[in-house]
Amino acid sequence: MLHSLSTLTSLVQDISRAENAVAAMRQIVVKLTELFSVPVCSLYLKSSSEQRLVLAATAGLADVAVGKVSLALNEGLVGKIGRTLHPLNLADAPTHDKFVFIPETHEAPYHQFMGVPLIHLRELIGVLVIQGTEQQRFSQDAEAFMVTIASQLAGTLQSIQRSGAWLPQQPVTHDIDRYSGVKSAPGIGCGRLEVLHLNLSLQDITQQRSTDIDAELARFETAVARLTDELSLGASRLGDSLPSDIANLFSVYLMMLQSPELHERTVLHIQQGFKASWALHETIDELAGAFDQAQDPYLRARGEDIRNIGNRLLRHMLSKTPLDTASEQRELVLASDLISIADLSIYRPEQIKGIICTAGSALSHTGIVANALGIPAVMGVTSLDLKKFDGEEVIVDGYRGECILHPQPALLKEYRRLQHADAQFIDQLACLRDLPAETRDGVRVQLLTNTGLLADVTPGRKHGAEGVGLYRSEIPFMLHDSFPTEDEQYEIYRQVLSAYSPLPVSMRTLDIGGDKQLPYFEIREDNPFLGWRGIRFTLDNTSLLVTQLRAMLRANVDNDNLRLLIPMVSRLDELESFVRIVDDTLEELQSEGVAVVRPPIGMMVEVPSAVLLLPRMLKYVDYVSIGSNDLTQYLLAVDRNNPKVSALFDNLNPVMLVALEQIVAHTQAANIPLSLCGEMASDPAAVLLLGMGLRTLSLNAHSIPKIKWLIRSVNFTDAQALLHKAQNLASEVEIRALMSEELKRLGLKNLSGPEPATIV
Ligand code: PEP
Ligand code: MG
Known about the structure:
The chain is an alpha/beta fold. Helices cover 45% and strands 16% of the residues. The strands form three sheets. Strands 15, 16, 17, 18, 19, 20, 21, 22 and 23 form a nine-stranded mixed sheet that branches. The protein has an eight-stranded mixed sheet with strand order 7-14-13-9-10-11-12-8.
């Protein structure tokens, strides 16, 4: 029982359902006393300000000690665990030289003691302790299980610990829940949390109140109407082809749905101030409970039917369909584990004020699309239990990688002010649209845009992009439900090329694999980032590549601004094959009488082998574009989507500076134009790229004004000096600190977003 995975899973689930942080901590300690059959379990959390371990919850020690008793690191057994970050498993704790007796805990003479540190992403969160009366060490199995529990709980406890709401000197309001994730798209957004892909049943619903009774009543009524329609439709569609007893079920269900009891009880619960989902939970429990008691098996089965109806009603209550969302005018913050482009396309872009993903990382595809659309996004918010907050007010701070759930009105007001200030700052920069991106000492930089969505063409033009440096052609593929035909592709590419003509547009051929999956062509691999990706995939699926090239080349006929770009090049023979296929396709089209011309061909440098082989690869291409996102991932062996290692993923790691310098040197020696199109171009790090000699950057449209402002505010010589300083530093942390100090000195700190004045 003790060591099973299911025990652990149910423990984690129970905690996630707890109403607030204090209740969650209480659940943990109580459950652990039961699991280990011990009289005491205590949870200590580290107070960030004083570096002490404070008793945050206990089962078995005196409740009055909670929040009062604390130990310095290395003080007592708990402090020792906090200092050494190592478990202690003792047969007789009082005889240990570190043992201290704390009278406030009213601790009985417990001998058996086991404490384990709670560590999340290298950081000490607290210490978890169990104590028993026997005089022997806990078993090896028990120790291993306790360590497993601690590692599972550390993430959840980190957000509680960081919120500080458990500390005694602060009033415990439980009103503010602040969750950290990874900064993915800059900006500040406020709105109602719209959780996608919820597959809840009534037993997952926790008690929640609402002050908007009318809205909750409407939510219930709408759900009833929708389920009525669904059942009636089902009855008429399937009625003739089903045996009559099964077909009758539809009418039984419909009768239950229309029953006055279901209606009246739910309405009553809502009027008592509960959310519709909780009201339904209560009603179904009451009604099904009555049937559960029945002797007659037929009647007992009706309990099941009622629950079934209840769950179906709940899903309608919580469902997000194109119909209701499109008609809603509300400002929304979309949230899920991962959000696909198809999910976003259900909503009007202006309605989406923010994006939160519990999985994913800064450079996941959702993040890239959020950047493209100018929507603030935070990824990898692993400890946020979305189910609990669906429909609540939320703030997304993409500058700091934070989300704040049900903020107090004053805090919301402050963030709305910041949102406004940020928008104003960006508006002020609009006057730069037609001015060149040129340093104060006259070095000209070309600013292109990254795109992939047709919706993104207008922002690119509006912000003065001088062309498209990266068109991610996989994005339209992701929005389809099967491979788009040559003509469908032609129509999309033609619109993009003509929107920018005569400015250049670099269209990258399909780059799927890794985190970019097509819903209709699943690629299952153990190691997708090292698998069937980019050019490897399209060369192996030659007909897909030829179809795409034909569509691009045809779309270029009246525009003449196409440049082809090859993703994920890692071998010389890939370039050779690609160039041959382009030439064959051109020949074929010419033989069909289409007036195609050979466009420039470029390669992405985003794999370490391409950096090292670059001098030999350059003879095949007309230009090079650096994909700093993947290059960072592969140089550092750090998954760009994994929140656990997101702190290690930084474009400013010293190895990137070394690699970039080599790429610049090789391309300059061969006189081949070079650009950079990863997210690094929209980071203030762009100054370093400038110092290095890069003269073309491609970035998301919404970042162009800020980066142009940055370029126009510095001297090239300053950028060079800064680069030289950065090249001598040992880590990305030091380089970032140097950058922010320099930018502040130059009066450019607005680049990292406005500072909140009164975050409480
Ligand atoms: C990159 O890897 O930097 C890049 C621009 O390509 P993507 O983000 O689409 O993989
Ligand atoms: Mg890439």
